[in-house]
Inverse folding.
């Protein structure tokens, strides 16, 4: 039990957002819900991230994670992800390989980010950090904006662990990658810079970040 809780606590450093210029962290603004999406959102909604290595299709779970999904859709509809990138590949040298995640988004660019959103823990949503899950990066709970990660393997340490001490809220998972796993793997395997990144992120930054050309709602999500 103690080992599992320790791993859960350590995992809370894995999805911290990265600033484009590695500037010191600013005190986050109070958490708030994003503005209502301009188009209706159903129980699930698909988004296509067109990267320079190919498309990635995400299916977001609006039914169980409405705040986080509406925030992501606001970035999509306002084209705030266009021209951003996947900039980080966290590679773990233990467990099933390839083991780790890729991270992308706005890099806390003040010209791109919206207000932080309320945190939706996995204990509330039931969306666990399984392989191909998409999850929001954050510092403290309630600071997530426009940075996100896609997991390549199951990472239960990123789930909420109410029984653990300290920051036990985990991260807000809100959907899954349903098409383009090969593209995600190409991003994961991209060459890394040995010098970029600070602290535990040093050596995890992609030397030539993979551009997100556009992020758009899919015309229609196919039936299950």
């Amino acid at each position: 039990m103690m080992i599992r809780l320790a791993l859960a606590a350590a995992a809370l450093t894995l999805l911290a957002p990265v600033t484009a210029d590695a500037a010191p962290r600013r005190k986050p603004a109070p958490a708030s819900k994003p503005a209502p999406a301009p188009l209706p959102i159903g129980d699930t909604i698909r988004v296509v991230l067109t990267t320079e290595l190919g498309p990635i299709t995400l299916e977001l779970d609006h039914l169980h994670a409405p705040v986080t999904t509406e925030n992501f859709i606001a970035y999509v509809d306002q084209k705030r992800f266009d021209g951003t990138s996947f900039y980080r590949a966290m590679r773990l040298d233990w467990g099933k390989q390839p083991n780790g995640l890729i991270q992308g988004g706005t890099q806390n660019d003040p010209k791109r980010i919206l207000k932080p959103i309320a945190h939706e823990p996995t204990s509330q949503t039931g969306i666990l950090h399984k392989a191909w899950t998409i999850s929001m990066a954050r510092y403290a709970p309630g600071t997530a904006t426009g940075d996100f990660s896609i997991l390549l393997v199951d990472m239960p340490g990123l789930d909420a662990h109410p029984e653990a001490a300290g920051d036990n809220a985990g991260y807000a998972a809100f959907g899954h990658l349903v098409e383009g796993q090969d593209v995600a793997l190409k991003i994961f395997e991209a060459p890394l810079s040995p010098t970029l990144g600070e602290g535990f992120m040093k050596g995890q930054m992609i030397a030539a970040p993979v551009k997100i050309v556009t992020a758009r709602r899919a015309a229609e999500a196919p039936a299950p």
Remarks:
- The mean pLDDT is 87.
- DSSP finds four helices and eight strands in the chain.
- The first strand starts at residue 44 and ends at 51.
- The two ends are 37 Å apart (CA to CA).
